[in-house]
Specification:
By secondary structure, the protein is an alpha/beta fold. It has one domain (3-176): Glucose-6-phosphate isomerase like protein, domain 1 (Rossmann fold, 3-Layer(aba) Sandwich), CATH 3.40.50. The protein has helices at 3-26, 29-41, 51-66, 76-79, 106-114, 129-133, 154-175, 179-185, 189-195, and strands at 45-48, 71-73, 92-96, 118-123, 136-139. Strand 4 (118-123), helix 6 and strand 5 (136-139) form a beta-alpha-beta unit. Helix 1 crosses helix 7, helix 2 (29-41) packs across helix 7 (154-175) and helix 3 runs parallel beside helix 7 (154-175).
């Protein structure tokens, strides 16, 4: 691998760090707090997005489950073929799209609102159709993607996940979630062994 290729690869760290800082600067703290409060009290949480964003939404659903907030990822295609039956009044429906114009998400937002769910939009375009349909809007900022063509959803994915990480952090504080609660639902792996070490009898 020549030096130019390596430098381009290493630049990804700086590119993503710049966008994370930019997102922290533009995100509305009141909206972030409102989102955390809504997630903390919702009976169920659904998240949906396409492509890289959809994968990030799967991560978000898992993050919520890890702090005992019942959540699932809704495939945009399956959502409009009956999957939206999961969403009920009082639930939270989180929809993520950098441009805020993802066609597949528009009917999901409309149906979610009609059913009485709180719609949270994560988008860079605050004037977008998705933002207009949302009750709460969380702004993101992507200066550029990592690749030379500025086309792969790399930085966008990192920023979206960072917003989701911030939401989980806030929800944990709102609900008073404890390490003992996490230990009870996470017995597996090195983390589970560490968390549950004090519960094992000494022999």
């Amino acid at each position: 691998m020549n030096g130019e290729i390596l430098e381009r690869a290493m630049a990804a760290f700086a590119i993503e760090a710049e966008s994370l800082a930019a997102t922290a600067a533009v995100i509305d703290r009141a909206q972030l707090a409102a989102a955390a409060e809504a997630l903390a009290k919702a009976p169920r949480i659904a998240a949906s997005g396409c492509g890289h964003t959809g994968i990030a939404c799967r991560h978000f659903a898992h993050l919520m489950c890890c702090i005992e907030r019942p959540a699932r990822f809704l495939s945009p295609a399956e959502a409009v073929h009956g999957g939206l039956g999961f969403v009920q009044a009082g639930d939270v429906l989180l929809l993520a799209s950098r441009g805020g114009k993802t066609d597949e998400l528009m009917p999901i937002a409309d149906i979610g609102r009609a059913k009485g769910a709180t719609v949270i939009a994560v988008t860079e375009n605050l004037a977008s159709p998705l933002a207009a349909k949302a009750d709460i809007v969380l702004a993101m900022k992507v200066t550029r993607e990592c690749d030379r063509f500025n086309s792969q959803g790399t930085t966008s994915f990192a920023v979206t996940c960072a917003i989701f990480d911030a939401l989980q952090t806030a929800v944990m504080e709102v609900t008073g979630f404890t390490n003992d609660q996490f230990a009870a639902i996470h017995p597996g792996g090195a983390v589970g062994k560490r968390l549950n070490a004090n519960e094992r009898p000494n022999h």
